[in-house]
Amino acid sequence: MLKKNTLAKLLITASAVTAAFVGTANAQVSNPYEAIKGEWIELPNGRVWGSTSTVYYAGDDKIWVSERCGANGNCLDTPEIDPIMLVDQEGNILKMFGKNMIVWPHGIHVDPDGNLWIADARGDEERKKGHQVHKFSPDGELLMSLGTAGVAGQDKYVFDQPCDVAVAPNGDIFVADGHGAGGNNRIVKYNSKGEYITEWGVTGSERGEFREPHAIALNSEGKVFVGDRYNNRVQIFDQDGKHLDYWTQFGRPSGVYIDKNDTMYVADSESNTGYQRNPGWERGIRIGSSKTGWVTAFIPDPNNGMEPRYTSVAEGVTADEDGNVYGAEVLQRRMRKYIPKGYFANPPQR
Fold first, then answer.
1. Which residues, in sequence order, are CB contacts of 206 under 8 Å at separation 6+?
2. What SS3 state is found at 174?
3. Within 13 Å and on the Cβ side, how many CA atoms surround 225?
4. Which CATH architecture is the domain 33-340 placed in?
5. For 152-189, how does the pLDDT look when each residue is reduced to its tens digit (9 = 90+)?
């Protein structure tokens, strides 16, 4: 048994190492990006931006974005507004759709066939919409809906505020179900036809448990990465729900995106904003490897001058093949684009 003094010394050393890691987790990596000044996307007819937590690279230099219909409430109250849009790298809107279909757009995913999936994280029982995950063709045709429209619950085909969705190359569908620490806190798996296969996760902080699975993504190895936000970690599973690991070095995850090179982008919009919200960590976008876990770049929160209690910077994040990074901001109600420093002097060769 360790003597009291020895144990105390070990605890002090461990605390110092932990503190050093937390501090250097932000400081040791550089920020190789700069933000585009001003509004990157101008909405038509003088329309103002609503909150947005959803952005995803569509391929071919195009990006899917969704905003909450000029506010942060029920999009059904403004049935004339299309909340989903496809834009090019310059911010030109190429197409819009989704009016009067979605209550509160949250996570977006593009599957291997180019179809767009979107999680509707609130419900309207009276109008029988929401608490669903929708699959659209690239032209906006509704192809499939998972969940029971307007009904909140926990069953094979009933969600309660689903946050995000990801689709494997074989067509299997993974839904991160539950917004808020006391939600469903589970991952639900379906086949390509929308038929229930399995689920995993309960409320808690042990390995394999969740307190708000706010984001989900898959890498080329087939591993499932879940942004377990209230637990300040990214959890990693195989596709049957076996727990493989968890990482805390990417901060408090609101959004997770993994590109074809297995580079992982994690948006941290909540660290250091309140009780048990990852104190001592900077908000921003951390970039690293989904294979090794190394964090190689950090885009600090450009809104960090705000009071600490406010969430800020991106909740949703994605990147294109030219190395541009895109952040979807809820509180600021805007899309932000980051370009590699020196981009205009040394444009990428493709």
1. none
2. strand
3. 26
4. 6 Propeller (2.120)
5. 999 999 999 999 999 999 999 999 999 988 999 999 99
